[in-house]
Protein: Polar amino acid ABC transporter, inner membrane subunit
Amino acid sequence: MTDPSFRPSELELERRAYRARRSRQSVLVGIASTIAFAGIVWITVVNTPGWAQVQQRFFDPATFASSLPRVWDGFLLNLQVLGYSVVTVSIVALLIALLRTLRGPVFFPLRALAAAYTDIFRGIPLIIVLYLIGLGVPALLNQRISVVLLGTVAITLTYSAYVSEVIRAGIEAVHPSQRLAARALGLGYAHTLRRVVLPQALRKMTPPLMNDFVSMQKDVGLISILGAVDAVRAAQIETSLSYNFTPYVVAAVLFVLLAIPTIRLADWYTARLREREQMGSIV
Structure:
């Protein structure tokens, strides 16, 4: 508890004032350099010979405004697939990671199956998985299936392989002494995993998981190849009507606005972990 009568010395006050001035100067220099760089880039681009034509075909304000409602409606479909995929990927990836961390020869078939799954789906491009699931499963069952379901399944199969490796690495990064101490206290395997291992692993694997989430946000746009009228397909339709590529810019802006909060959150959390490690805290 801080003593209310405590007052910093004059030297400490001068140091704090100096650090505050340096911080303000750094911010001002950063803003000025950013504005200068952006100005140079802008002047260079607008003075290129084909800028007028590019501006008309890619950055037309009237086309942007007219195509936004339809592209937005398609973007809502992307958000729907993304929401379902986040839940299913989390469950499947955690299950695969746990299978790969099982000990003992009796669990070798499960470990081999999980390893084969991650090897296969990390090696196959997502667009091929979308074709295989989107075209193969309806033909196999001989019935129509929702594109949302097919897209969610394809994204889950691919991203579960990547996310499971992140989770497995986080689990294995926890020192074995933590497991041994928990077992010595009488905790079973499940309780040790849930109360001791996973909470520590989660802090280590959160930044890479956020990066995978950002990648997933972009890749949900690939469901357009299955015929879904998402943001990308809506932009394609609008472009075919006006012969103007601005609708693609509209879709790009929506995806960027979706990704920025997650990217900034990942950077903030990574910086916070770095500060705690430098302070000697247990992370």
